[in-house]
Design brief:
The chain is α/β, with parallel strands linked by helices. It has one domain: Rossmann fold (3-Layer(aba) Sandwich). The chain is built from six helices and 13 strands. The strands form three sheets. Strands 1, 4, 5, 6, 7, 8, 9, 10 and 11 form a nine-stranded mixed sheet that branches. A hairpin with a 5-residue loop joins strand 12 and strand 13. Helix 4 runs parallel beside helix 5. The longest helix has 19 residues. The chain is globular, with a radius of gyration of 17 Å. The model has no long low-confidence stretch (mean pLDDT 96). Bound molecules: 1-O-pyrophosphono-5-O-phosphono-alpha-D-ribofuranose and uracil. The site of 1-O-pyrophosphono-5-O-phosphono-alpha-D-ribofuranose (PRP) has 23 residues, from strand 6, strand 9, helix 4 and helix 6. 1-O-pyrophosphono-5-O-phosphono-alpha-D-ribofuranose binds next to strand 6, strand 9, helix 4 and helix 6. Its EC number is 2.4.2.9. Pathway: Pyrimidine metabolism; UMP biosynthesis via salvage pathway; UMP from uracil: step 1/1. It catalyses: UMP + diphosphate = 5-phospho-alpha-D-ribose 1-diphosphate + uracil. Keywords: Allosteric enzyme, Glycosyltransferase, GTP-binding, Magnesium, Nucleotide-binding, Transferase.
Length: 212
């Protein structure tokens, strides 16, 4: 897996405020949205474009526009929803598919409770959004869904990732033979005994939406 850590002072600044336990939900939502826009810039570096001609007020010029087939953005509910607008802002032609997953906090395995994806994803560039890559169970399950539908170009956009989660995605994706790119704002040290990222930012869904 290719891991790209967005190394930029604005990313580090926003991430630091997100981590702060005293940051309230409205501020957390705004910063998550801003961070995703910065990550989206990196994540879409290889998005497909086609050449077009454009008439400026002065002369004809050659440019590009986002090409078909349209990219697919897949937020993993619930916390991934907090990243959707920031991604759509930079990728306005994208379609959106949804996956609802919740981690069983006893087993740390992901349960899927909702799925709304196009049937055929062959040839589509897919961008999966989930703020936290902890054990990797949720992201791995999401990527397996996409691969079963024919996806072979997958980029995951996360705010924080733990080494354990990265290793799991690497292992499982090598087994299925699909390369995955991860774009992340920060790489953290480890997981604690409850599967939380350390130092992390706590429960991303609760901090975004305030309901446990
Ligand atoms: C959180 C987070 C990820 C998952 C990461 O979701 O948003 O989806 O945990 O953990 P993992 O890498 O160990 O699978 P959660 O299950 O809390 O659901 P939520 O988004 O509804 O809060
Ligand atoms: N899910 C979260 O929201 N935070 C963690 O640290 C781990 C899983």
């Amino acid at each position: 897996m290719h891991v790209h850590v967005a190394d930029h002072p604005l990313v580090s600044h926003k991430l630091t405020v997100l981590r702060d336990a005293s940051t309230d939900s409205p501020t957390f939502r705004r910063l998550a949205d801003e961070l995703v826009t910065l990550l989206a810039y990196e994540a879409t570096r290889d998005v497909r474009v086609e050449t077009v001609q454009v008439m400026t007020p002065v002369a004809q010029a050659q440019g590009v526009r986002l090409a078909d087939p349209r990219p697919l953005v897949v937020p993993i509910l619930r916390a991934g929803l907090g990243m959707l607008e920031g991604m759509q802002r930079l990728l306005p032609t994208a379609e959106v598919g949804f996956l609802g997953m919740v981690r069983n906090e006893a087993t740390l395995e992901a349960d899927t409770y909702a799925e709304r994806l196009p049937d055929d994803l062959s040839g589509r560039q897919c961008y999966v959004l989930d703020p936290m890559l902890a054990t990797g169970g949720s992201l791995a399950a999401a990527i397996h869904f996409l691969v079963k539908r024919g996806a072979d170009h997958i980029t995951a956009v996360c705010l924080l990732a733990a080494p354990e989660g990265i290793e799991r995605i690497e292992r499982e994706m090598t087994e299925v033979g699909v390369p995955v790119t991860l774009v992340v704002a920060g790489l953290d040290e480890r997981l604690d005994e409850n599967g939380y990222i350390v130092p992390g930012l706590g429960d991303a869904g609760d901090r975004l939406y305030g309901v446990a």
